[in-house]
Each structure stands twice: as structure tokens, then as C-alpha cells.
Write a structure and sequence with these properties.
259 residues, 0% strand, 12 helices, mainly alpha, single chain, elongated
Length: 259
């Protein structure tokens, strides 16, 4: 083992520091944009990042994975969000809310997301990899919807079709935003796309907007910075009480917190 690789070994059994992961992603994209994806090797990436090969494989199984470093986290957040439902909410709207989390992930890093979009358009292998990631999102949504529609004769079919519709609408909104260079209003894009899905597939009418003119209430919420946005909204709803629940449409249009 080289001296460099020995220095890269963790000193304890804890997880590696995120800073190294970010450095690898930054180095990889710098080289991809300069040389091209196919012409860049893992050795090139770790050399620029100033670490050993073992460090790369602690984070990424293959070179393709460094192009999509945030999807595992996003998929986990989507799954947690879907599981957080009470069982009384509109399943179609809840699935659309989960899709919003994914687009928010892209919007948190607009420059990186646009670079990745342009890169995947040029590399067929990355496009195929991306499609496999999209399938995992669709599969997760379909699994949730199958559970919610289990008592319907057409439950499995309905779940699969709606899951595909949610993913397709999300991707339409995402591509529109990416093609603008990340300059368009991503919230408006995803709202329009998800409204189309709920308007087509939801069995429940849209919730009426809250009455205006009432005295404003002030609610103070204390939450960890790492808490997902949807969890904070649940806390606000709990403080306000069921009679004043935040409408799903309003909840789903909140902007992403900036780091």
C-alpha cells in the first residue's frame, strides 16, 4: 500500500468525511468537462482530488456513480416521505409531493445539475445509467400506490400507471428547468406538472384555499437544520391543529432551503 493510500485510510470505524466525497465529485466534473467522460479515468480523478484510489471506492462503486452522487439520499428521503403518510391523505397528491422532493434536490445545486444534464446528453452510457435511477424512483412510487389501492380491482394497474405519470410529469418539469440553464421558476414548473397529474388521476377534489381576513397566527418552530422540509411542515400543521392544516398545494410549493 502506498503512503498516499495509507493516509487515506479512516482512523476509526466511523463514516468518511463528506468533504472528501464533495472533493471527488468536484474533481470528476472538472475533468469530465475538460477532457470528456470517456477520456477521464478514476486515476485522473483521485490525482486531481489529492487522494488515493481507495478513497474513491469508499464512496462510489464506479465512475458513473460520481455523476449521480445525490440520488441515494434523495431516494431515501422520498421513501421516508411516502412512509410518513397517515393513510388518510390523497395518495395521488402524496406521490406528487414525493416527486417534488426530487426536483428540489436538483434545484439545491442548479449549476451542478445543469452541468450533469449537459454531460448525460453527450454520453450514452450515462443516459442509460440515469434511466436506471429513474426506474428506481418509479418503482418506489408504484410500491406505495399499490399499498394504497390494494382494495381496488384495478389497484395494481392504477398504481403503476399513476407512478409512471408522476415520474413523466416530474421529468417534464425538470427538463424544462434544466434547458433554461436553471433560470426558470422550478416551483412553478413542478406545480403545473403535478397539478396535471392530480387533475387527471385524483379521486378527490382539490382543497379549497383558506379564507382570508382572519387574524394572523404566529407559530415558532424549532427544528434541526438537517430536518427535511416536509418534516418541518408537519410540525407546523401539528401546531395549528387539524382545523387549520396547511393545504397540500401550498405545502408542496414551498421553496427549497438553501445551504
Amino acid at each position: 500500500m502506498s503512503e498516499k493510500e495509507e493516509q487515506d485510510q479512516p482512523m476509526n470505524d466511523g463514516p468518511p468525511k463528506p468533504a472528501m466525497r464533495e472533493a471527488l465529485v468536484a474533481a470528476a466534473f472538472e475533468l469530465f468537462l475538460e477532457r470528456g467522460f470517456e477520456q477521464t479515468t478514476i486515476d485522473d480523478i483521485v490525482s486531481l482530488a489529492g487522494v488515493g484510489r481507495r478513497s474513491f471506492f469508499r464512496y462510489f462503486p464506479a465512475k458513473e456513480d460520481v455523476v449521480f452522487p445525490d440520488h441515494e439520499r434523495s431516494l431515501a428521503e422520498m421513501t421516508e416521505f411516502l412512509d410518513s403518510g397517515s393513510g388518510e391523505e390523497d395518495p395521488v397528491r402524496h406521490a406528487c409531493g414525493a416527486a417534488r422532493l426530487v426536483l428540489r434536490m436538483y434545484a439545491e445545486q442548479p449549476s451542478f445539475s445543469v452541468q450533469r444534464y449537459r454531460l448525460t446528453r453527450k454520453v450514452p452510457g450515462l443516459r442509460a445509467y440515469e434511466l436506471s435511477v429513474v426506474w428506481r424512483y418509479e418503482h418506489t412510487l408504484a410500491h406505495y400506490l399499490r399499498g394504497r389501492f390494494a382494495d381496488r380491482p384495478d389497484g395494481a394497474l392504477r398504481a403503476d400507471v399513476i407512478a409512471a405519470a408522476v415520474v413523466s410529469a416530474h421529468n417534464h418539469a425538470l427538463r424544462t428547468w434544466l434547458r433554461s440553464g436553471g433560470e426558470s421558476d422550478w416551483i412553478a414548473e413542478v406545480d403545473t406538472a403535478m397539478a396535471f397529474v392530480t387533475g387527471t388521476w385524483s379521486d378527490r377534489p382539490a382543497e379549497a384555499a383558506p379564507e382570508t381576513g382572519a387574524a394572523d397566527d404566529v407559530v415558532v418552530l424549532i427544528a434541526s437544520r438537517r430536518a427535511p422540509l416536509w418534516r418541518m411542515v408537519q410540525g407546523i400543521e401539528s401546531a395549528l391543529g387539524d382545523a387549520r392544516r396547511v393545504p397540500e398545494d401550498a405545502r408542496e410549493t414551498q421553496p427549497a432551503p438553501q445551504a
